[in-house]
Amino acid sequence: MAPAWNSPCEVDEKLPFAPSAPDVLVDSPLAPEPVAEASARAVSLPAPDCRRADAGVRWAPPMDPVTLDQLRVFLSIVDVGSFSGAARRLQRAQSAVSYAISHLERSLAVQLFDRSTRTPTLTEQGRALLADARLVTDRVDRLEERARELSGRAEPRVSLAVDGLYPLGRVLCALAGLRQAFPEVQVTLFTEMLGGVVAHVKDGACQIGVSAPVVEQEPDLTWQPLDRVELVSVAAAGHPLAAWVGPIPSAELQAHTQLVITDRSHLTAGRDFGVHSGMRWQLADLEAKHACLRAGFGWGGMPLHRVREDLERGTLKKLEFEGVESVTSFEALLVHRSGFRPGPAATWLIERLKADGCH
C-alpha cells in the first residue's frame, strides 16, 4: 500500500520519505509491516518537485496561530515608532516585544519591519497588513464591549491617560468615586505630555484620555470639552529674569535657557508650543521641569495649580512678557476612539470627569 500525502508538496524531495509507524500493541492484528520494508518502498517513489511550474502548488510551512496580543504589539510599535517605546507603553521588557513580533512574522511568513535602520520602519508587506491588523483588534474590542452590554456586567478594567498639565487631583476625585461605585474594576492610569495621551488612545492602550489641544482632532477620535487649565511663566527667585522690572522683551528671553517639555510620541514632531528661546533644555515630564525651575536652571511655563504654593512662598516668581498675557489658559479635552462603547464603569468615569471630577 503506497504511503499517502495530505498535499503533494508536504515532502522534502531531498530526504527519503519514511513515515514512522504509529504506536500500536505488539499483538494487534493491525500492526504495521516492518518499517524497513515500508521505507524501501517509500524511497522508490519519486518525490514531487514543488519547484516545477506545472506542479501548481508551492510549499509553505504550517502557520502558527496569530494571537490578538501579537497584533496589539505590532500596532503599538507602529504608533510609537520604536520597539523600546512600545515596551514602555505596554509595560513589558523590550525582549518580550521583540519576541512577539518575531513570532508574528514567522506565523504570517512575512517580514513586517525593516530593522536595518536606526528606527524600525514598515516593509511593504507590513504596510499592506497594517489596516487588517487594526480591523481585527477593533472588531474584537467591539465584540467584548457588546458582550458586556448584553450581560449587564461592568468591564473588568478601565484605562485612562491624563496630560501632566491637567490637575491630577480632579482625576483622583473621580477615581475615588469610581472605586466606591465599582470596587471590583481595576484601573490603569498613565500620565503623559503633549501627544502621548492621544497616542495611548489611538493604539488602544487606554480607553479614555484627558488631553491638551496639541493634536489635530482626527475623525476616528471623539472629543469633548472639559474645564480650562491656567498656565503661567515662572523662574526661580534668584534667576536674572525674576529681577527684571516691567514686561520682559523677547530679545531678553533669547538670552536665557528655556525649560521645555519634549513629546515621547511622534504626534507633535516638528512642532513647538510656547518656545521663545533658542537655548533650551528638553525634559520628558512635568515633575522634572518643576524641579529644574526651582533649581534656577532656566525659565518656563507651568500650570498655575502646580506652582501656586511656590509663588506664595516666593521660591518662584511669575514673569511678564511684552505683548503676552502673564496668565494664559487652554481647554482640556476628553478623548476616546469613535467606535468605543464604554461599559458601565467607563461611562460612570466619563460623566464624573465631565462634571469636574469631584462634583
Q: C-alpha Rg, in Å?
A: 30 Å
Most strands sheet: 7 strands, mixed
CATH architecture classification of the largest domain: 3-Layer(aba) Sandwich
Note poorly predicted spans: 1-59
Average pLDDT reading: 81
- State the oligomer: single chain
At the first level of CATH, the class of the largest domain is Alpha Beta
Number of DSSP strand runs: 11
Describe the structure.
There is one protein chain. By secondary structure, the protein is α/β, with parallel strands linked by helices. The protein has 3 domains: 1-60, no CATH class; 68-149, Arc Repressor Mutant, subunit A, CATH 1.10.10.10; 157-359, D-Maltodextrin-Binding Protein, domain 2. The protein contains 11 helices and 11 strands. The chain has helices at 35-44, 68-80, 83-90, 94-108, 124-151, 168-181, 196-202, 250-253, 286-294, 304-313, 344-354, and strands at 113-114, 121-122, 157-163, 186-192, 208-211, 221-236, 258-261, 280-283, 300-303, 316-318, 327-337. Residues 1-59 have low confidence and may be disordered.
